[in-house]
Write a structure and sequence with these properties.
single chain, Herpes Virus-1, two-stranded antiparallel ribbon, 13 helices, 5 strands, 3% strand, binds zinc ion
Amino acid sequence: MDKLKSHVEVLSSKAVYEKSLLKLDELIQLVNEVLGTLEGDTDSNSQWKTQRQEGDGKITKRLKIASKSASAFAKEVQKKCTTTKNYMAKEFKAVYNKAQKLNETVPAAFPYDLRKLLSPCSFKKSAIIDLIIDSFCRQGRLSLAKRLMFEAPSGRSKAADHTTLQSYRRLFAIRNALMRKDERPALEWLAVQQQLEDKGLNKQDMEDSKNTEVRLRNLSFELHKLHFLNILEEAAAESVDPQGHRAHQQRAVTYAREFLGVFYPTHAREIGKLTTLLLFSHDLMNSPSAHLFTPHLVHNITSLFEREYYHSIGLPLLDPLFTTLDAGFTCLPHTLKVQQLISENPGLLQTEDDSIKADIHLGDHLQFHSTFVCPISKDMATEANPPLLLKCGHAISTDAMLKIISSSPRRNFKCPTCPTEQRPCDTLTLHL
Ligand SMILES: [Zn+2]
């Protein structure tokens, strides 16, 4: 892989076409000049034709001069084309030679034929396109996303595409305002979300709704906190003008009473720290809460807002395309090992559907909710096949237990991990 990296680096350092581009620009300029001159001549030509119709004897001679200059121009352009082409060929040859070497390095760096691992049928093309579109949107490349929506419709409606683009435009507008320490657009958006929450219009279950309510409240506090700190900064900036300074201080007090007071039951400690800052409004950086005036605060509040925004449009904060690739790269070495094992032991794969179930741990950063994989069947727990807590404290899936007791005439069974004997009525269904 290191060899491949160095090849790519050399190739990108060689692949500089500045001189070729310069020559091309010169050629384009020449062609434009010639076109301009010839167009001018054509205007004159029409004049000459008119004059000839009127019987002017000098016209034939002037036409000859015009055609001679056009042919001279053509030769000049042709010559320039040839020199530019030769120059570009010379510059590209160096890159081409390096690129040729990649043909040998790439297969050596990837000794596995991934096509054997992946079945194209297992990928839903439209889902992949949707992932790519969403990724472009998240990166702010909305025109590219729009182009892809147009070229690869994949069953989405135009209205849905329009809504997606609008959602991202709004997200970026609010986020940019927050980065400028302007919290008003975020507060406007939040007010609408809280209204929807109050009316129960957001489709969530009770517990999720309660969590959302708490998170929205926290975000609301953070946004008002940002505004309060902005006023204090304005006050500190006017510390040389006692009257102006007092006016800003008074504004901060009024704002705290009106907007921070409602958070007192849940954020009393933080409100205490914020109001203490009023005593340091001449020199905020020497206050005990000086850290609140660093860019970290705006960054953290922006992240909180983004999390809520994505939640409101039913999307995760992390780019699902990168999450998918991350999971794929983590699984790949394990999958390759399994593939090697199968190719070395052809008799190994004798399952009903010619497949092997392997439990691959993706790491904590890729765990988004509680999961249970049955140690017997290797199946992921579902609502139809929930995990069962056995009398001995071990857990297996419901299907695995049913399979075990199906061969037991007394309908009792032994725990597959420890040999504790038990009956189905001894087990407890676990809810994840
Ligand atoms: Zn057990």
